[in-house]
Amino acid sequence: MKSREQEYREIFIAEALEYYDAMSRHISELERNPTDEPALNELFRLMHNLKSNARAMGYNPIGELAHHMETIFGLIRSREKTFTGSVVPVLFTGIDTIGQMIRAVGEDEALPEVEQLLENLDRLVRGEEPILETGPEDEEDASRKLELSDLVYIQIRKLDHLLNLVGELTIDRDRVLTLSQEIGNPALAAAAAHLSRIADELQYSVMDARLVGVGSLFNKFPRVVRDVATTEKKDVELTVVGEDIQIDRNILQIITDALLHLVRNAIGHGLETPEERVAAGKTAQGHLTLSAQAERDDVLIQVRDDGRGINVESVRRKAVERGLVPAATAANLDDDAVRDFLFEPGFSMAKEVTEISGRGVGLDVVKLAIDSLGGQLRVDSTLGEGTTFTLVLPTSIAVKGALLFQLDQRNYAIPLMHTDSVVSLLPENFNVVGGVLLTRVQDENVPVVSLRRLLHNGDGPLAPATKADLNGRQDIIIVNYSNRRLGLIVDRFLRQQDIVVKPMSKPLDTIDLFGGVTLLGSGQVCLVLDVPALTRLFLAKRP
């Protein structure tokens, strides 16, 4: 399997060869018309990009030559030089040499010597005549071979369509496997096993083709931070970590606005002014870190600042003022529960409306974007020290890991992203507090509810629970959403399985409790539960 370094090298070589082809075309256009500004601008741009990419990859000789060539094209653009006389053969030689160097890198060969060429380019800059050689450096040019790039650019919509087809294939693969097991024919079983391997490899290949480095988004933020910091009259240093972490391009697209909001929020709300920081014993310059890291099948993206932190008591008072919670209840909420109010629609701690904050657009927008991906959003904060927002995202949204279970003899699926654990408990493991069943899981009291009652309860509140409702051992799925854990009592656990989630058709798509539908290998339709919606429903209906 290729390393990331090998993949980046191959991408660099493919792109560099495309640059070389474009350079060759444009310099020929410039030779025909020395005043062709579009061709000249393109040559300057291509040299600049090649220089940057080569230096980033550590191919400094290529970067150095491209830099010298960029300088000459810059002088021609500014009309300090003209594309005539000895300038022409030197620049043609430079482009040919760039092509040789790129091919040498691709074939792990020694790079050609370029000292004389660099000297000639320097001579042109100084206004001196270059030393030109002719001879055999011409026969080679006349017999040059043509090469095509190994890189193919594909529109995202085409990859989306291909991924949908792979999803359909995955469903049919599971059905064929199930049938082969039922029939028991060895030849059919062997063919089904081979189909399964091919389908798996195709699935992961397509998913891999959609992966991009988060750096493609992160690298847009230095300018954003500068502009917002200037508007807010703050001094902010941005640190970017983990740009090479890979994630599905569509996921990156969906979280773009959410990440932008979090960064603006960190500068506008989190970081203090230089005067406030110095008075608090901090450096005048605030520090903001944008980082990504892989964790099992997830990608964690964090926005961390070393600012004032979240004042939990201020949030608590604001929540009471907004009527989100009674004062008596608010007084007993822990810090995590209070910080969750920040994600309520329209909730804002801003004292005045600015370009950055106080416009009624709050963190609920961020939460909705993460929920739509089946991800999680966490917030950790220490007053006076700073705040960290963590986005827990799936690597891919095409195929999801899920836990299958039964309720009333129907199959359901619940995403593993929101599943903490599964437990089987006896009635004596439960207590009833305030009409709610509680059980102890991993040193924490977790509320438990019958999923059947939650789904079928209608519009009224849940009746107070009693231990008399429990009959024998209970199978429970512990789910986690927004730092809230909830136990769902089901009839029977089935198995873990990768599923392809399809959107619900009308009018079922209006039911918030289901995030989609999938087909099992048996051909059965299986509803996929929406954990955020279930959690909100329980909180709304609890006695």
From TrEMBL:
It comes from the Bacteria. The modification Phosphohistidine is found at residue 48. Coiled coil: none annotated. Its EC number is 2.7.13.3. Residues 194-397 form the Histidine kinase domain. Residues 1-105 form the HPt domain. Keywords: ATP-binding, Chemotaxis, Kinase, Nucleotide-binding, Phosphoprotein, Transferase, Two-component regulatory system. Residues 399-540 form the CheW-like domain. InterPro entries: Bact_Chemotaxis_CheA, CheA-like_dim, CheA-like_homodim_sf, CheW-like_dom_sf, CheW-lke_dom, HATPase_C_sf, HATPase_dom, His_kinase_dom. It catalyses: ATP + protein L-histidine = ADP + protein N-phospho-L-histidine. Involved in the transmission of sensory signals from the chemoreceptors to the flagellar motors. CheA is autophosphorylated; it can transfer its phosphate group to either CheB or CheY. This is Chemotaxis protein CheA. It comes from Hymenobacter glacieicola. The lineage of its organism: Bacteria, Pseudomonadati, Bacteroidota, Cytophagia, Cytophagales. The gene is cheA44H.
